[in-house]
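Hey, resending since the last one bounced:
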Amino acid sequence: MPFTHNQRFEEWGYAERAWYLEGRRGLTGTIRALFWPTEGVVEVGWYDQVWANRTPQPPSDLFIFRLSEEGYQRLRRHLEATIADYNAVTVFETSLFYPAKRSYHFFHTCHQYTAYALREAGLPLSPFWAFSRTSFAWQLHRAVQIAKKHPTALLSGELQ
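The structure tokens again:
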């Protein structure tokens, strides 16, 4: 994959193709994206800073978890398995966008996508309860507290 040689961070994301790549937004875009299963895209990007430090729209939260090698490998396998086809739909700056295996809708948004991936890595998260930024952040804050109390449990993937 390109761009990896000079960037520190690999970043994965998930979005509704029409909204994110084609700019089909507004009220009809919101209704379509949430209430009608539509094509999703997986973004794989490489950056010199994490998104929380790059975004022009703070506040953004940065959550740091230490994973075991096994947890990291499970995370990688899960993320790679979400891509339907490794022929990129488009390239934008240092990001490649691939067709996703799963469709985008209210019960499978970027928050659920991320919760599924982090749960594979061993974090105690529920994709069902990751329906909004706030509900997902609450779970991540809780996972941080659990990791502080039981740091070896997260490293060994025992918290599922």
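The radius of gyration is 16 Å.

Sorry for the duplicate.
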